[in-house]
């Protein structure tokens, strides 16, 4: 029988700083941030969908990072807490609900057909023009780009990058 021990006192991630290992990562991240920050989607909506992505993949680092970002932006605690159960929460706008539905559909398999149904796409199109919908898609791609680093590299929630990256 194999047992796996977990060390809650770990003070470094599994990997050295990815931005040092692959310096191009900064340019990629910057380009994604610039593309999603074009003003066609409110930053709060982007942050809400990125928080939901962190929850879906079960990653504390992403969940804590996006929760912290929403708090710093002045978002209400009720809305932050309700992201995990957004479907029955009344505190989200129609466009926010569509954004949450899209990220959930992208990250959750659907054994009964397409992940993004024609109905969901049509609903999204009622709230967003083509530029905004494309920006929303890029925002989902942005968080999905960083999910493998968060899951495999396992950065620590609430620890500054300079303190946590494994030193080689």
From TrEMBL:
Superkingdom, taxonomy of origin: Bacteria
Span of domain Carboxymuconolactone decarboxylase-like: 32-104
InterPro entries attached to this UniProt entry: AhpD-like (IPR029032), CMD-like (IPR003779)
GO molecular function, one term: peroxiredoxin activity
Pfam families linked to this entry: CMD
Protein name: Carboxymuconolactone decarboxylase family protein
